[in-house]
Task: structure prediction
Amino acid sequence: MRESIVKLNEHTLRIFSLNTIVIGSGAAGLNAVDRVFSFGQKDVALLTDNLKWGTSRNTGSDKQTYYKLTFAGNVPDSVYELAETLFNGGSMDGDIALVEAALSARAFFRLVELGVPFPHSRYGEYVGYKTDHDPKQRATSAGPLTSYYMCEKLLEEIRRKGIKILEGYQVIGILTDRNGEKTIGLIALDLNNIDDPEKRYVLFNVKNIIYATGGPAGMFYFHSVYPPVHFGATGIAFEAGVMGKNLTEWQFGIASKKFRWNLSGTYQQVIPRYVSTDENGNDEREFLEEYFPDPSTMLNAIFLKGYQWPFDVRKIKNYGSSLIDILVFYETVIKGRRVWLDFTKNPGWGSKNGELDFSLLGKEAYEYLKNSGALFGRPIDRLEKMNRPAIEVYLQHGIDLRKEYLEIGVCAQHNNGGLHGNIWWESNLKHFFPVGEVNGSHGVYRPGGSALNSGQVGGVRAAQYIVENYSGDPLREEEILEEAKDQILKKIELGESFVKRITGKSNVLSILKEISERSMRSMGIVRSLEEARKGKNEAIRDFNNLIEKVELSSIRQLPFAFRLYDVLLAQYVYLSAVENYIESGGKSRGSYIVHDSTGKLPVPNLPEMFRYSLAGESFNKKIQRVRYKENKCEFFWDPVKEIPREDTWFETVWNSFMRREVFR
Result:
């Protein structure tokens, strides 16, 4: 990597030139930079605004899952069987499913060797359990902090190797060649010198970009289980010409709001009380019983939320577990009330003198609690018995589940869609590789924990392709300035326009709240064509008027102005995708309801907005792609690629490998 100073009109800019830059310091980005370096490309660096930020380091659940091939017991498994599970989730390309399956063992055991404490038996078997949409027992976990441990161990390895880390930079623009066919660099804010106009903007002249910026969390900021420090940077990728893929597909689920944490697994299996209050915490009532026919059905639905944590439109009917998500959404978003989990008391409906009547539980719930030695006491007592770390996680964040209620909501947790990438994770723009959640490799459904595997596999593939095909130096400094002059000046002009909006007071959070409310209303778990169209129009209006609308308290808020710019652009493209999906005949699937006036209500006493019908299978065999340009979106609907069934005769593959043909 070389550093120099360049002049562009009246601007003096620092410029860093190197072969590959990896943006983002979550588990996907850390793995990617390590892989590039380990495979032989030493001219690589990690770029991040803050090493301690991001989703991987700051999120988890009762036992955060990592999904992989089966490595224990006598249940047969294979690469193709795992690929079929991923592919069968709908709207996922089979070639990518095969890659994620084939490299799952390599990715997993790399983490094991680095010291991530995945449990194994005394015989060395890495045992597993079933997770969401998992037909086998492929899931494993290192506890509530699996992805945190991944980040810690990967960062230790990066530092041990002396790989360059550039901390304190926020990417605000992706630079392309004149023809918009490949990326050639980046422009970023230097957060350490934000006060100095001569050092505020920095250029990165690079041959390759691995983009590991995570999902577009800022769109759901106040209705999100993403950590508050994570926003994503998908909008500026759209701006550069990167295509989006499956943008309609998200995962939503019940999570705590004060400390953002998924409330899956044991948190639900201990059967806590669901309580609704007014805005001030008064008028307390257990509201689930208003919609369920009897206490047995309600208690079993709560228990099953542990296994079936993400909202799933297929699990609504017959009082299924996802009815609970709808009821929480109805109480909070529509009625404007607050909802809490109470672990200090048993649900009133189904208890006698405060003692839960375990005979009301179905066989699955009863046997689970019996085998766990937890057929006793209050929910907190059962949680203490079954999973004490789940209590300690909250204690570490100032919340004592033994004494206080836990405020919850239905929150955005993961974007199954994202940026387009091929089997090497390269986008439609050459030399640009979205890796991790920002890559839309998943379809409608995915097994819990498969996102962690996908992020690790993506880093391997991008690194392999870069080392084999894209070695060498980036452009000369004068060449990148010539190619991207207008793009660079436009970003600097935007930034300085924001600087002029420093008024001593700030409306950043209020704008972010508007964006968040719009996302939940227009593309949350309940959707309609009217709301999607309205939200889309509002988003592009706010995007185009952002300079006039935003007010900043000081220069330290300039990074947040750029985040609003990114989030609004992303929101416009995402809402355009929702509108296009519904206009194309798409109905309810995955983690959302699409209002259908001819459909069915989940239960009779819910309002008409919840009436729905399921999407036909034909939509699961197609992928929606989108390209943004100048306030307009162009959509493409492609058939999914089937899982490849190619010749795996050893000598044939060996010869192809020796000739490096497999890397093309």
Summary: The radius of gyration is 25 Å. The chain has 20 helices and 23 strands.
